[in-house]
């Protein structure tokens, strides 16, 4: 039995995200067939395939027992939460990079500006000395 991770497909699923969330963590083969998916949907399956599941551990959507269904739902919720946590950490580190850049870029611009000003002043001083030397000759 194949397992698919459709987390990134939730918002793009033509049949809506709700049906996928309800089927998450369970055997949704029947629902998939009943929805009358065409070849396009079948071809997309490869994209989301994550591995095989031992059929003896499967929970059907027609609910074997409330506890197993709840466990399956909980595990799929945990799975989604973990994914959100990973996204959150990635977001956090990229936000820290942006903050660092926001801090460094103005400092670099200021440094460059003051160096240019100092060069300009040195050049002006040099040309004054040069002019003075010429007038003394
Ligand atoms: C990896 C799993 C899935 C993929 C890649 C997928 C993909 C698609 C695609 C591409 C369509 C557009 C019609 C078509 O090309 O056939 C569609 C429609 C639909 N899907 Fe899925 N689907 C998946 C799982 C499911 C599941 C588990 C359910 C139900 C529990 C479901 C319910 C529906 C329904 C009801 C439609 C029809 C929407 C409409 O015509 O308004 N799908 N799906």
Provide a short characterization of the protein structure:
With 137 residues, this protein is mainly alpha-helical. 69% of the residues lie in helices and 5% in strands. It has a two-stranded antiparallel ribbon with strand order 1-2.
Write up this protein.
Residues 1-54 form the Cytochrome b5 heme-binding domain. This is Cytochrome b5 heme-binding domain-containing protein. The chain crosses the membrane at residues 100-119. The protein is mainly alpha-helical and 137 residues long. Helices cover 69% and strands 5% of the residues. The chain contains 4 helices and 2 strands, in the order βαααβα. It has helices at residues 17-23, 29-34, 39-48, 66-136, and strands spanning 2-4, 49-52. The protein has a two-stranded antiparallel ribbon. It is rod-shaped, with a radius of gyration of 32 Å. The protein starts with a strand and ends with a helix. Mean pLDDT is 82; it is low at 62-72. The structure holds protoporphyrin IX containing FE. Protoporphyrin IX containing FE (HEM) is lined by residues 4, 6, 13-15, 19-20, 23, 28, 31-32, 35, 37-38, 40-41, 44-45, 48. Protoporphyrin IX containing FE is lined by residues 4, 6, 13-15, 19-20, 23, 28, 31-32, 35, 37-38, 40-41, 44-45, 48.
